[in-house]
Amino acid sequence: MPNHLKETINKLKERGGNIKGEALLSDIEALTKIRDKKSVDIVLENMREMGEKIDLKEIKSSEWYPEYLLSSFIIVSYQFLGLTEKDIFEWGRTATKVSFIAKIILRHLVSIDKAFEECSNYWRKNYDFGNLVPVEMNSKDKYAVVRITDYLSDPLICTFHAGYFKGILEFILPSEKIEIKEERCIHRGDSYHEYLISWGEKE
Ligand SMILES: [Zn+2]
Question: 92 alpha carbon to ligand 1 midpoint, in Å?
């Protein structure tokens, strides 16, 4: 077992913070869509060997669980399943399609402006730490800027979130081409993560 992996997990554990059971489950389940069920079992087994037990059957949708379990699951998957950053992005994107609550909430986000206004509340439903801050919305030039603050994790999770944003935008703007770019990042010396979200007609 690589030592640096254990260290990363311990750091995430010390940071604290919780995620809603529903989000934890659907984010993990989304791995079966980009890979398969066996891959989930492999990762769970590797985590168990590191002393981190996740019993999927015991997780209740409406309860809170330590977020480091999800971040660790993603990091361990990357390590042991040979995933690429592109796979992690795709995983985040797919997670929005799996989540039951995301689907219900997204049904009410009929416009990009509404989604922008509501993004902090959406974050708060899934996490009890960090913030998703709407910074700028420019419907004319078709871009928006959002920030994730007070959220220290791992660069892979930034990519996962980027994919997640893309998945959400695809619900709202199904006929547009959507691009997500993380322009600032805590892991590159900035004091928050900042994403430029842009859309435009498909070619
Ligand atoms: Zn970042």
Answer: 14
Sign of CA dihedral 11, 13, 17, 22: positive
Q: In this structure, what DSSP letter does residue 111 have?
A: S
pLDDT in tens, 23-33: 999 999 999 99
The ranges assigned to domains in the chain are: 3-97, 109-201
pTM greater than 0.90: yes
Q: For residue 182, report the distance from its CA to the centre of ligand 1, in Å.
A: 7
C-alpha 104 – ligand 1 centre gap (Å) = 27
Q: Cα torsion for 192, 79, 126, 113, to the nearest 10°?
A: 60
**192 Cα to the center of ligand 1, angstroms:** 7
Which residues are near ligand 1, the ion (C-beta closer than 5 Å)? 158, 185, 193
DSSP 8-state symbol, 188: G
The tens digit of pLDDT for each residue in 85-99 reads: 999 999 999 999 887
How does residue 1 score in pLDDT terms, banded at 50, 70 and 90? low
Tokens at residue 9, please?
A: 């997990």
CATH architecture of the domain with range 109-201: Alpha-Beta Complex (3.90)
Q: What is the whole-number distance in angstroms between the Cα of residue 124 and the centre of ligand 1?
A: 19
Distance 196 CA to ligand 1 centre (A): 12
